[in-house]
Amino acid sequence: MSKEKIQTVCFWLLDINYEMLGDTPEIRLWGISDKNERIVVLDRSFRPYFYAILDKNSKVEEVKERILKNELVRRHIIAIEFLQKKFFGQPVKVLKITCREPPAIPKIRDEVKLIKGIEDVLEADIRFYMRYMIDNEIFPCSWHEVNARELSNDKGWQVDKVFLALSPPKLKIDKKKLPSLSVYAFDIECYNVHGEPLAERDPIIIISRVYNGSDKVILTARDKNDKELLNNFVKDIKRLDPDIIVGYNSNRFDWPYLIERSKRVRVKLEVSRSNSTPAQSVYGHFSIVGRANVDLYDFAEEIYEVKVKTLENVADYLGVFSKDERTKIEKSRIYQYWDEKEKREILLKYSLEDAESTYGIAEKILPFAIQLASIVGLPLDQIGSASVGYRVEWYLMRQAFKYGELIPNRIEKAYETYKGAIVLEPKPGIHENIAVLDFSSMYPNIMIKMNISPDTYVPPGTEVERSEVNVAPEVGHRFRKEPPGLYKKVLERLLDARSQIRREMKNLKPNSLQYKLLNERQRALKIIANATYGYCGWTGARWYKREVAEATTAWGRKLIRETIALARKLGLEVIYGDTDSLFIHYEKNKIEQFIQLVEKELGFDIKIDKIYKRVFFTEAKKRYCGLMEDGRIDVVGLEAVRGDWSELAKEVQEKVIEIVLKNAEPNNAVKYVRKVINELKNQKIPLEKLIIWKTLSKKIEEYEVDIAHVRVAKMLMKLGYKVSKGEKIGYIICKGGGEKLSEKVKPYILVKNYNEVDTNYYINKQIIPAAMRVLKYFGITEQQLIKGEKQTSILEFFGGS
DNA sequence: AGGGGCTTCAGTTCG
DNA sequence: TGCGAACTGAAGCCCCTC
């Protein structure tokens, strides 16, 4: 029974997929209506297509005939349409070939590609639902309006209403408020008596979940039987019907594990809104139809301040769940807590805290993820797992469609290096009252101003009037001034949208919901704009052109050089600079004059980013620290902010920096370092602070040299732990072993006794270098740090001890 | 054999 | 599965001296 009434439905798009309905593809738009109903809008009007570029001399009708002569192709084709398009800015003749069903596209493309008169096929590798969204300008996490007829929900989908679209939905650009979204955060614990849990062998014992913040439940297995647990999990999700499901590392661990367990114990993991099970999809994520399955780990990876990205560390950093308040259980002993009745309560608490942390992280991250998805145009469940390059690319593809530009194929090109930015030699030591000035969005603005783009590039040999092109310094690449290129149009759009939002924000209260929403949006816009330069120099990019990246950095170098020259002209001393920033002695009037001069002479905006009361440079580039007016300290590049130094060394350096910058009393720093060395000798420093973390950045077999963390990884593997590429390995340097450092390492989890620790290593290779990095500029010697407080008599100095 | 000096490998950060 | 510039420690190698 179908209800005939035609209505206008307004909905926020949460998820999209398609299914074949006989030989008709049906697009399904899952969303939330403005009446807060969960709905699905079906569109059966769209068909897949791709383009075939015609050779210069080929005749349209002849090529068409040749295409239709192919039996297989003819059976699948609905229409062939001749069109004029642009490819890299040049007019091209193409055939738009529309087919019946998406799965047939790869076959048809391969056949058509071989036909005489056809140079290449384009846009045949765009997934069907993405094609649909691009062509109809439909955006995830955005509001749309559609004329539709309500259908009966005869497939039993978990929605309030089912609609059939009478025409594609239209984006409602002015409606920005978010619908009320329900969020389900979960975490699983597995029985791990054999070490690393294996889904083929070890049951899931606990699933904890937090729904919309306050609703918390711990589901448990019956001893080691998880069939009922899995059934309860499915029931729980179905009952609550969340819009968004979040986990931490859930795409790599929880979902594959849940899927395998369900298969083993014969439970249907029907957690979607269409009664289907989670399926692995693009970028390795698991898709749950009708909902958004978001793995927060993907976003945590982008928080570079957190070096070891465990759930606890990320929750702690985001202020969601303090590390000190967490229930602590050694991962490898989880099974013991399960088996021993009196300990089980602790494990349940621990597990729920994981779910609570996950929920808390979701609250911090989802607002940004939602804005990113709505700008880039990738569905919410994919945006996190898509790399920076792909995010930029999807945005570009959307824009290219709007401008009638064909989307280039993805072709892996040979890697070529090119020159990057300039970094100035710093003047070592302490400087007082320093302003840091920087160009805002320097590369995007250069690309806009010079119209740098693959489609405006003029290759050598092409004759063009000098007045019609911008010529890059040093490298000589030429770019047409007109018409505006793809990068220019895209970047202008991003930067304009961002300024507009920032203007709107000025009229809002900073703690209002709307303000926060807009703030996340402007952040997302900035990130995409700033990533565009990196994208254009990436050999995997569809719009890769080395000359584009090379010209951009060349103009960047010229700009910063000319800016330095202007500063000197005004008598300002430049202390340091990196890429788009300059450190200059702060003289209010002169700096204001300078900012105006740069704007007038060079046509770029430069602004004061911060003012340091005091700043300290070593002779190394990219390494300094500074004290701001409000007492905060910035540490840049030094050991204290690096993830591959022990916490002990980092703390020492941090403190030394503080003493030196705030009190300018290096002798106090010396006393402090001596104190720490003594504490270490007396085994007073917690072992955790001695752990050194390094990323296993390749497969173990691929390493050419014997190196500490690889050796540790091998030890862990012998103990039954799974160690994979990309993982952080934590180890402690111990006594004994051989001469080489790599022969003295132990996985930190195995170090129980302080007597094992090679304290000399931590003194000589961690504490002292970290402290000396700063202190040597104040005439302090290593000896002063090592020797006890009372001595340094000449006698002892020569006599040795 | 052992140490100095240099290069290479590897990891990490800056902008 | 965004870029190049830059730094640093440890391993590995060559060469010299003994």
Description:
- The protein is an alpha+beta fold and 801 residues long.
- It contains 23 helices and 29 strands.
- The strands form seven sheets. It has a six-stranded antiparallel β-sheet with strand order 22-23-18-24-25-26. A five-stranded mixed barrel has the order 1-2-3-9-8. Strands 13-12-11-14-17 form a five-stranded mixed β-sheet.
- The protein is globular and about 90 Å long.
- It binds a DNA duplex (15 and 18 nucleotides) through helix 12 and helix 15.
Q: How much of the sequence is in beta strands?
A: 15-25%
Please summarize the sheet with the most strands. Answer: 6 strands, antiparallel
The low-confidence runs, each spanning 5 or more residues with pLDDT under 50, are 789-801
Decide which structural class fits the backbone. Answer: alpha+beta
Q: Level of helix content?
A: 25-40%
- The total strand number stands at 29
Task: Furnish the topology, listing elements before pairings.
Layout: E1 6-21, E2 24-33, E3 38-43, E4 49-54, H1 60-69, H2 71-76, E5 77-87, E6 90-99, H3 105-113, E7 118-122, H4 128-136, E8 143-151, E9 161-165, E10 170-171, E11 183-190, E12 204-211, E13 215-220, H5 227-240, E14 244-247, H6 250-265, E15 279-280, E16 286-287, E17 292-295, H7 296-300, H8 311-317, H9 334-339, H10 341-376, H11 380-383, H12 388-402, E18 429-439, H13 442-449, E19 457-458, E20 469-471, E21 478-480, H14 486-505, H15 513-536, H16 546-569, E22 574-578, E23 581-585, H17 588-602, E24 606-617, E25 624-628, E26 633-636, H18 647-663, H19 666-681, E27 692-695, H20 708-718, E28 728-733, E29 745-747, H21 759-775, H22 782-786, H23 794-799
Parallel strand pairs: 3-9, 11-14, 14-17
Antiparallel strand pairs: 1-2, 1-8, 2-3, 4-6, 4-7, 5-6, 8-9, 8-10, 11-12, 12-13, 15-16, 18-23, 18-24, 19-21, 20-21, 22-23, 24-25, 25-26, 27-28, 28-29
The structure holds a DNA duplex (15 and 18 nucleotides).
